[in-house]
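Write out the bound-state structure for flavin mononucleotide.
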Amino acid sequence: MTVTAETPIATTEAPARLELPPLKLGKLTVDVPVVLAPMAGITNKAFRRLCREYGGGLYVAEMVTSRALVERNDMSMRIISHDEDEAVRSVQLYGVDPHTVGAAVRLLVEEDRADHIDLNFGCPVPKVTRRGGGSALPWKTDLFTAIVNAATREAARGDVPLTIKMRKGIDEDHLTFIEAGKIARDAGVAAVALHGRTASQHYSGQADWNAIAELRESLPDIPVLGNGDIWSAEDAVRMVEQTGVDGVVIGRGCQGRPWLFGDLQAAFEGTDRRFRPGLKEVADSFHRHAELLVDYFEDEGKALRDIRKHVAWYFKGYTVGGELRAALAAVPTLEVLRELLAQLDADAPYPGADAEGPRGRAGSPKRTALPDGWLESRELSAAHKSMISAAELDVSGG
Ligand SMILES: Cc1cc2nc3c(=O)[nH]c(=O)nc-3n(C[C@H](O)[C@H](O)[C@H](O)COP(=O)(O)O)c2cc1C
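---
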């Protein structure tokens, strides 16, 4: 059993309320304007199922590399797989070469494997930016334009809405988001999402919601989605109020807390219903997550290795002894998992603020690794051009 609508709820005195229309992405209507951010290694079919059981929204798969998808490697096909009851099959592509990205979109469209496609221009991981990919890419306006044009052209053939997700820029001296947003709009994207950080911030500091508001104002004709540092339904409402965005994108805030999507739906419906699970309910969700991962990977050992990284997120703020935490973080099988979870205090209530707030990646600012000479011009040099076509890596990042 997981947390349900019958779970005891906390009532706040002044509930966050908001009237926001459904999010329109081309022909799609997303009733609750909330998006699960693509997260490599997290937002697979298993986690998406858990999240969407709590609330409406758009649930994006972890990114897949265009090259690997075109080559149909096993992991890529698994990443883009969806449950039969996923109403909107959403896929995120990463790529640096217009031809390969176009081919990946064509594959998804022609084979009817996606109802929504997002392009990743936000990844700050050095092995990606060092090759001019992810958040380094919009700096090269010619390359960025060519990729988005190729992708929208192919997506339009199947009337599949295509969106982009980006950061503010490489660093504060090399901001690209307004220009990139306009290029993407002109190419016909259905929406743009902005994570309010630069690449060099990685996940440090605070997301700049003013930049999100600025983008919203600069693109009056398409939906703009805001991303960064939403840890609660109340944060989501604040972001909409402060920036005017058409929807919110949630990443780390839901790690170990799929019920956040229930809170978000409630807030957007103007109710004060919030999920406040006790330890037993958290343990049940954790166990269910592990079971779903076994189905996803079709490999119990792999699934159990994967669930280990979720331990600290699920049990943040709950009383779980150090030894038990350590054992959970090394759990080998579902059977051992059940034994370990049975040792938890089934009556321990929701711990309040300790279970809330920031979680997941943080880190410190770092100078962004870039190809030599990348910042010297906004256009690709011949040398960068040849590097780019060899740079479609098998990456996973964020
Ligand atoms: C573990 C992890 C993996 C990520 N993977 C991706 C990814 O595959 N594609 C992407 O566009 N962003 C990725 N991101 C970035 C998130 O989608 C999101 O933009 C970022 O975490 C900021 O939102 P948040 O403050 O709500 O977490 C990743 C983030 C994390 C923490």
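---
The longest helix spans residues 279-297.
The two ends are 32 Å apart (CA to CA).
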